Amino acid sequence: MKQLQKHLIIILVMGIMLAAALIGGISTFTFREISSNDNRAIMKSIQQTDMEELNDTLRVTAQTVNALTASYADIVPDDLSLLKDPEFLSAYEDKTENLGYHLLSENFKIASLYYRLSPELTNNPQAGYTVARSADGISVLKLTPVNLHKFDEDDMNHVGWYYVPVSRKEPTWLPPYYNTMMGGQCISYVRPIYKGDTLISIVGADIDFDEFCKRINNMTAYESGFAVLFGPRGDLLFDGNRSVHIPQETIDKIMDPARDSLSTSYTDHQNRVFVESSQIKNGIRLAILVPEAELNYKQDVMTYTIFLLTAAISAILILTMTSILRRIFKMSHTDTLTGAGNSSSYIERITEIGDKINEGTAIFSVMVFDVNNLKHVNDTQGHAAGDHLIRNGYQLLTEEFPRSEIYRIGGDEFVIIMENKLSDLCGEMIRGFRQRMRDHSESYRELPGQVVLAAGMASYVPGTDNSYMDVFQRADEKMYKNKSEFYDHHPEMERRGISPEETRWY
To answer: Where do the TM regions start and end (predicted)?
Structure first.
C-alpha cells in the first residue's frame, strides 16, 4: 500500500508540472493569437471562398445551357411545320442529342442535360432528348424522354422543369426538388427558346443536389463552424442533420432581397451564433454559422486559461486514478502464479452465464483440465518444480486455445469457458487436444518433465441443464475419466489422494 501511495504522489506531482507547462503553452499561444487578423474578417473570407466554389458549379451549368441554347436556336428550321414530319424530327433530334451528349461527357459537374421540343409544334410529347451521367459518374446514358402529356403541368417532380420556365418565359433556376427521372434531388437551370412569340423548345441541365450538399457539408470555419443552405423562400434546405434552430427574424434578414450578403447573429439556447451569408447565383443563400464565443475568445482568454488549467489537472487525475483502479482490478482478478483468471474472476464469469441461462440466451461449453502427476513431482522434486509444472500447463493451454477465457480454479485445475461457439467445434478442439496429450504421455517416461493435462468438455443443453454447474460436473467427470486413462498407462505414478473439491478455491 505504501508503494502505491508513493506512486500516487509522484503522479500527482508530474500532473501539476504538466499542468504548469500547459499554462505556459496556452499563454504563449493566446498572446500570439491576440495579434492576428480580425476574426470576423477571416470568417467572411472563408464564406466567400466557399461560396465561389458553389458558384463555379452553377456558372459552368448556366454557361453550358446558354451555349446549347445558342447552338440550337441557329438550327431551328424556318418552316416549323417540318417538326411535325417524323423523319425530319428524328434527324433533328439526333443532331441536337449528339451535341448534348458530347458536352455532358466533358462536364463532370452536371448530372444531366435535356432538350425538349414543344409538343404543340411536333405533335409528339416526347420529342427531344435526355442524357444523364451514370451512377459511377463516368459514362453518359441516353434516357427515354418524359411524356409531357402524361402529367399535370403543376407536377413539379415529373414536369416542373419544363412548365415553370415556359410559364415565366425566361431562363429559370429551379430550387432543389425531387426529379423522378434522375431518382434524386436536383437543382435545375432551364432556358426556353422562342422564335418570335412561338415556343420552340427548352434547354436544361440538372445538378445533383446530394453532391452539392456534400460540398457544403465539408465547409468549415474555425473549430466548430459549419455551412447551411436556404431556399429562395427562406426554407432550410441543408444543415448537415445538425437540427439547427434559427429564429425567423434572422432568416428574414438573411433572405432580404435588397442585400446580397449579410453579417448578423442570433441567440440559440443562450449561446450567440455569428452568421455570414451571401446569395448564390441561383437565388439560394449560403450561410456560415460559428459560435460567437469562438470568435471572441480573446476577450475571455484569462478565464479560459484558468478553466483549461483546472480541466487539464482534473483530466490527468481522472486518467491516473482510472489507470490505477484498472491495475488493481486486474491484479485482484489474476492468478499470481500463472497469469490465468483467478477464482474471483471465475465466480463473476459463471454468475454472468447463470443470468444468461435464466434469460434463455446461454450458448456455451466448458472445458476442464487437470495437470497429471503433480503430486509425484511435488513429492520427488519439491513444490517449486510443481509450480513450474503448473505454469507450463497454463502456457500449454494458451498455445492450444489462444484468445480463450482460461481460469485457474484449484491447485492444478484449469477451466476454459467457450461462449457462443458450436458444441461440435468445441468437441473437435478437445479431441485434438487429448490426442496431443496422448502423444505426450507416450514419451513421458523419456521426458519426465513434460506436462500432460487431463481434459474433459461438456456443452450446455437447454431444458436439460438447469445451471452452469450441471455443465461443469459433466465436463469434470469426463476430465477425471481421461485422467484415469493416464494413470492406467503409467501405474508407476502415484494418484492424488484427495478429492478435487478439496483443492478448488470457489
So the answer is: 7-31, 301-325
Count, residues in the chain: 506
Nearest Cα to Cα of residue 227 among 276, 176, 296, 281: 276
**Residue 85: all three cell numbers together:** 414530319
The domains of the chain, with CATH numbers, are 50-211 (3.30.450.20), 343-502 (3.30.70.270)
Mean pLDDT of 8-18: 64
β pairing state of 220-221 and 140-143? unpaired
Residue 3 has pLDDT above 50, yes or no: no
**105, 134, 143, 145, 467 from 138: Cα distances, Å:** 8, 6, 16, 21, 62
141 grid coordinates: 446514358
288-338 pLDDT, tens digit each: 888 877 776 665 566 656 666 666 776 676 667 666 656 766 677 888 888
Q: Where are the alpha helices (DSSP H) in 236-381?
A: 248-254, 292-295, 301-332, 343-359, 374-381
In the sheet that 364-371 helps form, which strands lie side by side, from edge to edge? Answer: 405-408, 413-419, 364-371, 453-459
C-alpha cell at 54: 458553389
Distance of CA 410 to the CA centre of its chain: 45
Q: Which three cell numbers stand for residue 27?
A: 499563454
* Across 20-36, average pLDDT: 56
Count of C-beta atoms within a 10 Å radius of residue 318 = 10
- CB of 377 within 8 A of CB of 387? no
Question: Tell me: the pLDDT tens digits for 176-208?
Answer: 999 988 888 999 999 999 998 999 999 999 999
Q: Helix (H, G, I), strand (E, B), or coil: what is residue 214?
A: helix
Residues 75, 96 contacting (CB under 8 angstroms): yes
Q: Is the Cβ–Cβ distance between 301 and 32 less than 8 Å?
A: no
- Per-residue pLDDT of 332-375, as tens digits, reads 788 888 888 888 889 989 999 999 999 999 999 999 999 887 88
CA–CA separation, 457 and 478 (whole Å): 7
Residue spans of alpha helices (H) in 360-496: 374-381, 383-400, 423-442, 468-489
3-state secondary structure of 240: coil
Non-local (6+) Cβ contacts of 63 within 8 A are none
pLDDT in tens, 406-446: 999 888 899 999 988 877 888 888 888 888 888 776 665 54
Q: How far is CA 204 from CA 131, 160, 213, 392, in A?
A: 11, 12, 21, 78
What single letter denotes the amino acid at residue 9? I
Roughly what angle, to the nearest 10 degrees, separates helices 2-34 and 301-332?
A: 150
d(CA 297, CA 62): 42
- The helix-helix angle for 86-106 and 39-74 (nearest 10°) equals 150
